[in-house]
Amino acid sequence: MADRARTLGLALSGGGARCFAQVGALRALEEAGWEVAAIAANSSAAVLAAVYAAEPDARRLEEVVRAIDFSSFLDPDGTTGLIGHAGVEELLAEHAAPTFEDLAVPLVVPAVDVERAEMLVFGSGPLVPPVCASNAFPGLFAPVAYLGRKLMDGGIVNNFPVDLVRALTDRPVLAIDCRPAVAGPLELPDAGDASLLEKVGALFQRGVPTIVELLMRAYNITQDRVVEVTCALHPPDLRLRPALPDDLDIQDFSRMDEAIEAGYRAVAEAVAGGRFEALTAVG
Fold first, then answer.
1. Which residues contact 226 (CB under 8 A, 6 or more apart)?
2. What b-and-e string marks burial along 246-267, b requiring 16 or more CB atoms within 10 Å of the CB?
3. Per-residue confidence (pLDDT) for residue 36, from 0 to 100
4. pTM
5. Are 198 and 230 within 8 A, CB to CB?
6. Which helix or strand (DSSP H or E) is residue 175 part of?
7. Per-residue pLDDT tens over the stretch 30-51
8. How far apart are CA 138 and CA 219, in angstroms?
9. Residue 116 burial by CB count (10 A; 0-12/13-18/19+): exposed, middle or buried?
10. pLDDT tens across 143-174, in order?
11. Helical packing angle, 86-95 and 44-54, nearest 10°
12. Phi-psi category of 147—alpha, beta or left, where left has phi over 0 and alpha has psi -120 to 50?
């Protein structure tokens, strides 16, 4: 039986490949003697959390993610976006559980109905569709059709579900934030005295990545404001932001080692610095 004083609720932000830091963080937590009582997770973190909640073992989780062939997630005919759902579905079918009720650790994931502009929170019933929906980042995935709805990434309105985990447990909440930085320089063309038409043309001549970078920056700024409001209303007992490089993109799956190490180091340093001591006194 777990020592109640050393159990905690876990809130995991989205962040694509940056979420691999949460794998390292879980390993450091286990090594420090902490156990997870409940998890609320969104986007890529929802997939990682579903695997972990089925069998709470960080080393197993790390083995699973290291064995993923990310090229198998690509959708060559483009019908479901750049990345298809089939690869995630197969991963969850093999390493997670059929239903939320079958998980060893309670889990909730948010998703957004993009037709009705509603956020839904899933914590019961079939596991795979809601987790795939929570992971369905706009522009990369098509919506997941489930329960008569078209569902997408919960991060559209709640990319750091610190509020949701409070409904699952009375234990202190550790929040691990792997979202991309919202501030930083952008390398845009200097059009000088060019006309508006020439400036727009120059921007597009640089290619789609420039446009995507601008859209992502705008999306992240808006999202960041929502996250800070959520954290102010439902403050976690401890919030950690692993020192991930700003240039570690949400699709940089080849930098898994770097991300895992950053997450491990964030928790290990917080433990060594005594930041977890106050959590043992809660409850």
1. 157, 158, 159
2. eebebebbebbebbbbbbbbbb
3. 98
4. 0.86
5. no
6. strand 173-176
7. 999 999 999 999 999 999 999 9
8. 11
9. exposed
10. 999 999 999 998 888 888 999 999 999 999 99
11. 20
12. left
